[in-house]
Fold this protein.
Amino acid sequence: MLEKDFKQIISNIKEDIIKTQIKTMQEVNSNLIMLYFRLGKIVSENKAYGNNFTKQVSTELKLTFPNMHGFSERNIRSMRLFYEEYAEDEKWQQLVAKLPWGHNLLLIEKIKDKEIRKIYAENTIKNGWSRNVLSVQIETEFHKRIGNSNNNFNLSLPPKDSDLVNNTIKDPYIFDFITLKEEYKEQELENAMIDKIKNLLVELGKGFSFVGNQYKISMEDKDYYIDLLFYHLELRCFVVVELKATSFKPEFIGQLGFYVTAIDETLKKEMDNPTIGLLLCKEKDRLSVEWSLKGTNLPIGVSSYKLNEYIPKDILDKLPTEDEINLYLDIEGDEKDE
């Protein structure tokens, strides 16, 4: 048997095992959530007995199942609230059964509007958000940011694709993992993003696969460099991202359009969808963006971004340099050796 064939067989086996593990974990979680739902129903139907009933249930369950977690008095009260929240809606029951318990409690606590809560529940399942990531998305009002960019997707892409793309792009993006000085350059922003590429991919959303930064496009007499290049596994297309440390300017569209065309001409395969351009600016005037987008038939979206915080220049100037820190560490080490 050829080594290549053997590797493919092993790869298929591993993929099957992983899929089975994931499916098993999902089924275990779903069964646990629905158990909590049924326990919540019992507590709700007997709440006339007061808090003492909840306390007795907790005590009995902990004594009977000492190796199981989740039967504290507080958690059983949460089960009752969980049941009462979704008792009359079977579709909601099916949806929340796909979410871990901690996620469900967070959604009920933080979001009272069920239509908005549904957006977060569905995107948690789609993007695989941890509880901490879900919490951050709620704090940064993800539901207001998704699908909010200025773009021409409905004019430059088929309706089915344009809806999917539009619901992939946010505005603004929140890069709260990046801290820069007040006056920074695009290169500094790009470097910070590359340093925190995992965080960047989480904020961009599920499906973004990093291809490279400063991706070189060679022409006959000149080279051009794309800030960030991704391939989106769900959209099945390349995504060109250009970073601007300034407010939006109409000429940015022309530059990004050139890069989009360059990727279509050099990297795009027959099975790929048209390349998408995403321009990230510090600030933007929506009307200026809309007028600028009317001048191109290439699929381009324009979003703003926010950083966690800036380090004031007067503080930045007082911070020690890397050489000064290393010098201090060397002196400290010499003193200890004496």
In short: The chain has two domains: 3-144, 147-316. The beta strands are 150-151, 173-181, 208-218, 223-232, 237-243, 276-281, 300-311. The domain at 147-316 is CATH 3.40.1350.10 (Trna Endonuclease; Chain: A, domain 1).
